[in-house]
Amino acid sequence: MTGSRRLRVAFVGKGGSGKSTISGSFARLLARRGEPVLALDSDPLPGMPYALGVAIDDGPIPDDVVVEGPEGGPRWVLDPRCDADAVIEQYAATGPDGVKYLQFGNLWGHASTLQRAQHAWSQVVREVDPDRWHLVGDLPGGTRQAMFGWARYADTVCVVVEPTAKSLHAAARLLNLSTATWAPHHLVIVANKVTDPAEIEAIGARLGRPVASGLPLDAALADGDRLGTAPLDVAPNGAFAHGVEALIDHVESLDYPRDMREPS
Ligand SMILES: Nc1ncnc2c1ncn2[C@@H]1O[C@H](COP(=O)(O)OP(=O)(O)OP(=O)(O)O)[C@@H](O)[C@H]1O
Ligand SMILES: [Mg+2]
Q1: From ligand 2's centre to the CA of 124, what distance in Å?
Q2: Residue 193 in contact with residue 217, Cβ under 8 Å?
Q3: Number of domains in the chain
Q4: pLDDT digit string (tens) for 155-173?
Q5: Which of 3, 109, 190, 220 could disulfide-pair with 113, CB 3.0 to 4.6 Å?
Q6: Taking a C-beta distance cutoff of 8 angstroms, is the pair 101, 54 a contact?
Q7: Residue 116 falls within a domain, yes or no?
């Protein structure tokens, strides 16, 4: 059991490193422990729904609960009659294992529509009760999110890195940016698609930090991709799933100042 502490985790890394696959599976396995989990997807080209097993179009916040913001304030805000809890209750999708999934924005309309949904999403994430939900976030690849702090809700940032030169280079830069601009309480290195333990050592040596978790390359996940089936449904007892369980245990075992985590 996780006890009363709520996790606030976000996954960053180079494009294709496995952020969505891991974060979606992390959210589901945490929910299976009987915990309330809110999966936060801030990728406008979302991969998390596939990893969670929710419908791809589920979850955007509809325009009719977003209104123009006050003079001098944000451009768009939630209708004051609709708070963060109500948005989650009404518009977050419920996925397998009971995970609630909130998507960044609705890309079907004009770009201005996306902006409204994104402002509303950000407001929900800022105002959500952190004592109620475990927050598990999937960020888009690249550096923007680290530079502009798209995941300030997270006190733990998992940097996903593949054992490739490019992925390592990206992880090193993300670590620098995250340390300089975010200062999350914990930066956790997650090696993904590992085929040999020596790769984990090499990643640790290159990044100058211990690798907290090494997730194996699991061929079954490629079958899942082709079928559109979530990793935990295509390989429920595979080495990847066990690795993600161990990652949850690791994040739960991290120390935080008491006042950061005690429910009020
Ligand atoms: N441990 C693994 N074993 C095998 N395949 C994996 C593993 N992790 C991820 N993959 C595969 O790698 C590909 C990229 O994964 P994913 O979409 O999760 O990456 P991402 O970092 O979220 O990418 P993007 O930056 O595009 O959002 C997918 O085809 C996924 O199935
Ligand atoms: Mg992704």
Answers
A1: 21
A2: yes
A3: 1
A4: 999 999 999 999 999 999 8
A5: 109
A6: yes
A7: yes
